[in-house]
C-alpha cells in the first residue's frame, strides 16, 4: 500500500490520470511476494501476467468466433500460434520459479539449522512441503497460475472500481476518512492485523463496490443432479450460467438496489435474508478460497490511499468491456490531492 501511494504521489495536482495502472502493478507485486517470495523480479512478474492475460483473452476470442470452435480450423489459425507463444512463456517462467525456489529452499535449510526463528512461509513453500510424489511439477505450476491470476486481477479490479466510487461520493469518502482517523489518528504508521477488524465502514464500502460493479458478472456450473426451479427443471449433464449481475440488482435488495449505498451492510436487517444473494466472492462450495486474504489486502490498500489523498471521480462516465472479468475502458480516471 505504501509503495502504491508513493507511486501515485507524482500525479498530485496534475489532473485526471489512469489509476488502474498503479493499482494493478501493486497487486501483481503483492501476490507474487505472497505466493512466490522473491523468486521473481517485478519485470518477470509483469511478463508472466501479460502472457496469462493474453492466453485468457485468446480463449475468449476463440469462444466468440464460431469458426474457431472446431479443432481442425483452430489448429491452423494465427490465434493458435499466439496462444502457444503465451503458454511457452508461462511454462518457462513456472519452470524457472520452481528451479529457483528449490535452490533457495536447499540453501535456507542449511542456514535455518543454525537459527531458532523459523522463516515465514509463502504459498509456494506450502505447496512444496507436499512435494515428494504428492504433487507433480505440473500440479504445482497449475496451483501457482491459479493463485497469482485469481489473487491479483480480481482484487485489483475491485480497488479500481472502489476508488472511482469513493471519488464519486464525497459523503462516503468523508465517512471513510473519519473511520481511518479513529483507527490511525494523524499517524502514517504501517497498518497492523488488529487494525483491519476496526475498519468496519471500509469493509462495507468494498462489499457494496462488489455488489454494484460485479467483477465476474456470471459464472458457469455443471449440473450433477436434477434441480427444480419455479418455471423449469435443470437436468443433470447440462451446464448453466449464474448471472451475478442480475442477482445483485434483484428487488430483494430493496427499493435502493440501483444506488451505491455502503450503509446497507452495516444493518443486517436491510440485507436479503438469503446469504447467496451476494456473489462477490461467488457462492456455494466452489466460492473464492482466498476471500479472507483478498479482503485484508484490499482494506490495507485503501487505508494507505485515503490517509494520504483526497480523490475525485465520476462513475457515471464509466464504460466497460467484459472478458473474464468486468473492466473499465473509459471514464475510470481520477484526480487526487494531498490531505496533509
Automatic annotation (TrEMBL):
It is found in: Endoplasmic reticulum membrane; Microsome membrane. It is a peripheral membrane protein. One of its GO terms (cellular component) is endoplasmic reticulum membrane. The keyword Endoplasmic reticulum applies. Its cofactor is heme. InterPro entries: Cyt_P450, Cyt_P450_CS, Cyt_P450_E_grp-I, Cyt_P450_sf, Cytochrome_P450_Monoox. The keyword Membrane applies. GO terms for molecular function: heme binding; iron ion binding; monooxygenase activity; oxidoreductase activity, acting on paired donors, with incorporation or reduction of molecular oxygen. Keywords: Endoplasmic reticulum, Heme, Iron, Membrane, Metal-binding, Microsome, Monooxygenase, Oxidoreductase. Gene3D superfamilies: Cytochrome P450. Heme binds at residue 288. Pfam families: p450 (PF00067). Its main location: endoplasmic reticulum. Belongs to the cytochrome P450 family. May be involved in the metabolism of insect hormones and in the breakdown of synthetic insecticides. This is Cytochrome P450. It comes from Danaus plexippus plexippus.
